[in-house]
């Protein structure tokens, strides 16, 4: 009987079959149990030996069940490990990470340069008023210089700032010199849109005010920026021009090698000058001098990275965006 039980138990294919066998052998009406019941019918002198024999049988059967159970469990774990095996040598899936827009990259690069030079980075409102955008910057009400900055007016008489220069006025009004600040930000002009003009673009404005700040300091600041952007030895040029809020005023350019044509040429970047006495008067400053400069980021980004149509910077076309992932 033991041999028969062991053979069945050892060939049970799974836990369920084993459970059925357990009932068949050890259950209330199981074969081993039935055998135990026969003890009652034996003569007392036979009972002892038969009892020992049946108990040994029962123990052996129980032990076989336990062993088979453990073996089946181990096999199940092994099978699961096989099924869920991971090939750690397969190449990974690259997560779809976003990236900064080219203009944002250029902006960060510039503000990093100026932070290194000790400037504070501040921002101001895009919705401005006539006073900050024009009046306090020495544009009188009917002055023709206003015509160069076609303005979007709101119905309540305010305007979208046409340049970042109004932050000069706001910053000076709220702070005492000496200081060095740069103001990156969006500006707006009512322009006919074409490959080099958008109604919305970005500028970076710098303002440095203190005692005995000179044009040489301005030159040095512009040159430091040029060197940081385009490498050691980069040259800069100033050409006299007019902006109402500076005197003297100039246009500044950087001598560089055009990445597409390979030609060396002057890259006209922006305007600069010594802060006009009328601007200092408008914010109540006395006995200080200062310089300011400002320029457009789109133009700088376009010539540096070979973007020929400004509108490509605003279309949000991923084919364009991908080309400028992590360039600046
Ligand atoms: N705000 C001027 C513009 O948008 C640029 C400019 C010229 C800024 C001269 C300056 C400056 O700070 O000194 O055309």
Describe the SSE topology.
Layout: H1 2-10, H2 15-26, H3 31-37, H4 44-83, H5 102-116, E1 120-121, E2 127-128, H6 130-133, E3 159-160, H7 166-174, E4 179-188, E5 200-210, H8 215-230, E6 235-241, E7 246-257, E8 264-275, H9 277-282, E9 289-296, H10 297-305, H11 318-323
Parallel strand pairs: 1-4
Antiparallel strand pairs: 2-3, 4-5, 5-9, 6-7, 7-8, 8-9
Here the CATH topology of the largest domain equals: BirA Bifunctional Protein, domain 2
Helix content: 40-55%
Quickly give the structural class: alpha+beta
Q: Give the CATH level 1 class of the largest domain.
A: Alpha Beta
The CATH architecture assignment of the largest domain turns out to be 2-Layer Sandwich
Number of domains: 2
Number of helices: 11
Question: Largest sheet at a glance?
Answer: 7 strands, mixed
Strand proportion: 15-25%
Q: Widest sheet: strand order? A: 1-4-5-9-8-7-6
Which cofactor or ligand species appear? 3,4-dihydroxyphenylalanine
Give the end-to-end Cα distance, rounded to a whole number of Å: 85 Å
CATH superfamily of the largest domain: Bira Bifunctional Protein, Domain 2
Shape: rod-shaped
Compute the average pLDDT. Answer: 93
Count of distinct strands: 9
Low-confidence stretches: none
Q: SSE order, as H and E?
A: HHHHHEEHEHEEHEEEHEHH
Rg of Cα set: 43 Å
């Amino acid at each position: 009987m033991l041999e028969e039980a062991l053979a069945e138990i050892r060939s049970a294919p799974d836990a369920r079959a084993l459970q059925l066998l357990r009932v068949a052998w050890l259950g209330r009406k199981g074969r081993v149990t039935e055998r135990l019941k026969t003890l009652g019918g034996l003569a007392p002198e036979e009972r002892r030996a038969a009892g020992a024999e049946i108990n040994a049988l029962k123990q052996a059967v129980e032990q076989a069940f336990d062993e088979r159970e453990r073996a089946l469990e181990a096999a199940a774990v092994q099978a699961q490990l096989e099924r869920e095996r991971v090939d750690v040598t397969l190449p990974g899936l690259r997560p779809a990470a976003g990236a900064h827009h080219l203009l944002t990259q250029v902006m960060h690069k510039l503000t990093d340069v100026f932070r290194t030079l000790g400037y504070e980075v501040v921002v101001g409102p895009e919705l401005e008023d006539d006073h900050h955008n024009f009046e306090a910057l020495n544009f009188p009400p009917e002055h023709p210089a206003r015509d160069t900055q076609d303005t979007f007016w709101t119905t309540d008489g305010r305007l979208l700032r046409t340049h970042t220069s109004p932050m000069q006025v706001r910053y000076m009004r709220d702070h005492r010199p000496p200081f060095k600040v740069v103001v990156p930000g969006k500006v707006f002009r009512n322009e006919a849109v074409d490959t080099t003009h958008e109604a919305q673009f970005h500028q970076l404005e710098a303002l440095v005010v203190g005692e005995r700040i000179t044009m040489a300091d301005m030159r040095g600041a512009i040159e430091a920026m040029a060197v940081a952007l385009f490498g050691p030895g980069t040259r800069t040029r100033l050409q006299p021009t007019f902006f109402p809020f500076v005197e003297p005023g100039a246009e500044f350019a950087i001598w560089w090698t055009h990445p597409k044509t390979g030609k060396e040429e002057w890259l006209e970047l922006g305007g600069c000058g010594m802060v006009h006495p009328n601007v200092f008067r408008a914010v109540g400053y006395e006995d200080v001098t200062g310089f300011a400069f400002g320029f457009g980021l789109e133009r700088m980004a376009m010539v540096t990275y070979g973007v020929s149509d400004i509108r490509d910077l605003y279309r949000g076309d991923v084919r364009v965006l991908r080309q400028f992932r992590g360039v600046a």
